[in-house]
Design brief:
Length: 343
């Protein structure tokens, strides 16, 4: 039996490069030779503490942002062929459940997250092949294309808040997701203010297209937003940190009638006190946003394909597959580092 190398997750802080059987596709499935996989904050979080939703039963294949070349197709696959350069989403909706039938694909009852990007080959399940594998424009590299997954989440956030021309949006946070949010919002012609702590990251936020960046060490973010909006507050606020304090801050910096998006996922069990008077009389809308849909994924591939995203701000270097365990061991405390894994 032919073998391939893959990084498997055994337990928190225990991942190993091992040899596993080379997959072969069943009906509707494809095998993709991984061209590049990207490390992601979610993977670092899973590495630190485990992640039932992401990984399922252990040991589990690891990594979920990947692009590569189709090398084998199962019976019934007609829209893809060997040699196609593609990006594969890490999920696809079932199209049959209560939520899918109401257009809320990201909440699909049967959403099962697909992993195994840190490997030489990936067996893509039939439902993802059917709904969420996209061919790449020739000029788009594999590592850049693999940004489609997080970018699709950012586009989802921008769509849910319906940010519009002429509006001011504040983003709390300056990590990779904030950099993608900035660019998704710029694509919608929104004025973007960014608040963070790390000065290097704030500089990246500026290069990504933020109109103003502020260090929370230097200014009170709520005061700064008011000063930039004639005292009203921002039309939209994205909390891209995932902590109770910044979630409260996001509510304080939005204007009457404005929209707030909890984009950064808080730890399970997090409770946030909310100024109910302000939410009611100020008619403030609070939105949770999770994951992406095939529509947003396709839009992400299109944005990347026409060079509308400054990908070099997000991808900080390349490492071989064999270095993945050591890289996670060294970097899991600072989830910000995104590198391309080249098998
Ligand atoms: Zn990701
Ligand atoms: Zn469904």
């Amino acid at each position: 039996m032919k073998k391939m190398r893959a990084v498997m997750f055994y337990a928190p802080k225990q991942i190993r490069l091992v040899e596993v059987p080379l997959p072969s596709p069943g009906p509707g499935e494809i095998v993709v030779k991984v061209g590049a996989a990207l490390t992601c904050g979610t993977d670092f979080k899973a590495y630190r503490q485990g992640h039932r939703v992401l990984l399922g039963d252990l040991p589990a294949p690891f990594g979920h942002e990947l692009a590569g070349t189709v090398v084998e197709t199962g019976s019934g696959v007609i829209h893809l062929k060997n040699g196609d350069r593609v990006v594969c989403a890490n999920s696809a909706p079932c199209d049959e459940c209560f939520y899918c039938r109401r257009g809320q694909n990201q909440l699909c009852d049967r959403l099962k997250l697909h992993n195994g990007a840190y490997a030489e080959y990936n067996l893509v399940p039939a439902h993802i092949v059917r709904h969420n594998v996209w061919k790449l424009p020739d000029a788009l590299g594999f590592a850049e294309a693999a940004l489609s997954e997080p970018l699709a989440c950012a586009i989802h956030g921008a769509e849910v808040l319906s940010t519009a021309l002429g509006e001011t949006t504040a983003i709390i946070g300056s990590g990779p997701m904030a950099l993608l949010l900035i660019q998704a919002l710029r694509a919608k012609n929104t004025r973007v203010l960014v608040f963070g702590r790390d000065r290097q990251r704030l500089e990246l936020a500026r290069q990504a297209g933020a109109h103003e960046v502020h260090s929370a060490h230097d200014v009170d973010p709520v005061e700064a937003v008011r000063a930039a909006t004639e005292g009203r507050g921002a039309d939209c606020v994205f909390e891209a940190v995932g902590q109770s304090a910044t979630w409260q801050q996001s509510l304080a910096m939005v204007r009457k009638g404005g929209r707030v998006c909890l984009f950064g996922g808080c730890a399970q069990g997090t409770m946030v006190p909310v100024d109910a008077h302000r939410v009611h009389y100020g008619q403030i809308s609070l939105h949770g946003v999770f994951h992406h849909t095939p529509l947003y994924f396709r839009q992400a591939v299109e944005l990347l394909g026409r060079g509308a995203v400054r990908t070099q701000l997000l991808i900080h270097g390349r490492i071989p597959l064999g270095d993945v365990p050591a890289f996670f061991d060294a970097n899991h405390e600072r989830s910000g580092a995104k590198v391309a894994v080249i098998p």
